[in-house]
Specification:
By secondary structure, the protein is an all-alpha fold. Helix content is 45%, strand content 0%.
Amino acid sequence: MSWIQEFSLQGRLGRTGFWLRMVVVVPLALWLCTLVQRWPGAPFDLVPVMALVAHLVSVWGRRLHDRGRSAAWLLLAAVPVAGAIALLVECGLRGPAAKAERYGAPAGVRSDYLRVTNPATDPALP
């Protein structure tokens, strides 16, 4: 059930995954919201809108985790223009933070429970 993780605030999300979701998934979801609004209409149009909002909060929150920030930084969106620009720069343009272990392993890295090593000294690790 990996698709359920798309609605979770747990974990991290790299810059490539963030932009992939923003460029592919969000336009498709907005198209679906528009389609459902036209037919069958209210109150059924609330379901895809709530799913899109949950997905956006999840994606932006996990990207903030990759940057070493809390998802509470999403409250910057309440500041009309400057908040949106700050979030876009923080999430969309900057790479992963150097010290972001608080939110788990970097995006795309799996934990290996059979071997305990120090990534800084083990040349086999990326």
